[in-house]
Design brief:
about 400 residues; alpha/beta; 4-stranded mixed β-sheet; 12 helices; 17 strands; globular
């Protein structure tokens, strides 16, 4: 029985898989079980921030795995402590809480915001405003936080306490605020929602509104964080500082991690027994994250992310059949004139390019260290594929 048959027989059918079984990878390239080579501009949906099997990352993870692979969070551990120090030193945040995914990080942020409000104002002040077309995870609570009706089905009852405002409309948020509101949760770029970049003036108005009413502002940086948008964290592009940010995906460089970072205002909200995790702060994962952060936080590296993003956009706009491109750094959405993104993504696989979609767009989240030559190669394959379908 081959891998695909085995998968179909024994794994729940929760993914619409492409017809390829990957076996190995190096840098921006992956190889299937037959040895066919693919240029991957999806990087595990933004997870492999330094590509496949970066030598330094492999060394860091292997060294830690051969020392101690896991311990309970009842004990201190060097790697998560070092990572927390890096995250707090590189940002305005003062404390970190670890988890294993973006959804877990968002759950943590939701709990912190609600407890802060409970501690200060008492019960009943627990509603959180999110944006329509947002995506915050697949747990019952983070699905409820997600501002898309298509996700609010089957799994009733959903967690209560979420309201949905229109993006880039501050009046829409103002109209939802009441004495029950404790937080506003936004993605500065809505990734799963279609690479929708929020207006800077809107994000700044949300920050001011939250300041005026002592409402916690949470920025979901699960997809935008760790260098993806040309800044260490996306909120920096908007000249604001949230009270809480969540990150995951690219932080671990390929291993599961989630992190919720808070400002000094919130650093003492959570106490022992308020929150916890078995695998969060795993030392092997944190060793990988420490390596990733040491690379991605370099200003020259981040400048190159911006340069590559601009270069990629310019190239993509020259392709016949591309209607528009929106990007921030190397977070890229491509609108096609024929509105056939899914079909093109499937055919790209046949032509040796791994690319994903978001809504009706093609989406690129390439490794942050992709070369200009590899960008040229990706554009060439995409161009060829689109022209074959015209």
């Amino acid at each position: 029985m081959d891998t695909k048959q085995q998968d179909k027989k024994y794994i729940m059918n929760t993914y619409g898989r492409y017809d390829v079984a990957l076996k190995s990878g190096k840098g921006c390239y992956a190889f299937d079980e037959d040895g066919k080579k693919y240029l991957d501009v999806s990087s595990g949906i933004g997870v492999n921030s330094l590509g496949y099997c970066d030598d330094g990352w492999v060394e860091a993870v292997t060294k830690q795995a051969s020392s101690i692979q896991h311990m309970s969070n009842y004990f201190y551990s060097p790697e998560p402590s070092k990572l927390a120090e890096k995250l707090c030193t590189l940002t305005p945040f003062t404390k970190v809480c670890y988890g294993n995914s973006g959804a877990e990080a968002n759950e943590c942020a939701i709990k912190i915001a609600r407890k802060y409000s409970f501690d200060k104002y008492g019960s009943g002040r627990n509603e959180i405003i999110t944006l329509k077309n947002s995506f915050h995870g697949r747990t019952v609570t983070t699905l409820s936080a997600t501002g898309q009706d298509s996700f609010h089905n089957f799994f009733f009852p959903f967690t209560e306490g979420f309201l949905y405002a229109d993006a880039n409309d501050i009046k829409s948020i103002e109209n939802l605020i009441s004495d029950k509101t404790c937080a506003v949760l936004i993605e500065c770029v809505q990734g799963e929602g279609g690479v929708n970049i929020l207006d800077k003036s809107f994000v700044q108005a949300v920050r001011k509104l939250c300041d005026d009413k002592d409402i916690v502002l949470i920025a979901d940086e699960v997809q935008t964080g760790v260098g993806r948008t040309g800044k260490l964290f996306c909120y920096e592009n908007f000249d604001i500082v949230p009270d809480l940010i969540t990150c995951a995906k690219g932080l671990g460089g390929g291993l599961p991690i989630g992190a919720c970072l808070c400002t000094e205002k919130l650093e003492n909200v959570m106490q022992p027994s308020n929150h916890g995790t078995t695998f969060g702060a795993n030392p092997v994962v944190c060793a990988g994250a420490n390596y990733v952060l040491s690379k991605v936080s370099d200003e020259k590296f981040l400048d190159e992310v911006n340069e590559k993003g601009a270069y990629l956009k310019e190239k993509l706009l020259k392709i016949k059949g591309v209607k528009s491109v929106r990007n921030l750094g190397l977070m890229v959405g491509i609108e096609l004139e024929k509105d056939n993104a899914h079909n093109i993504a499937v055919k790209c696989v046949e032509n040796g390019l791994l690319i994903i979609t978001a809504k009706n767009l093609l989406r690129m989240l390439p490794p942050l260290n992709i070369s200009f030559d590899e960008i040229d190669e990706a554009v060439e394959i995409l161009d060829k594929t689109i022209q074959e379908d015209i």
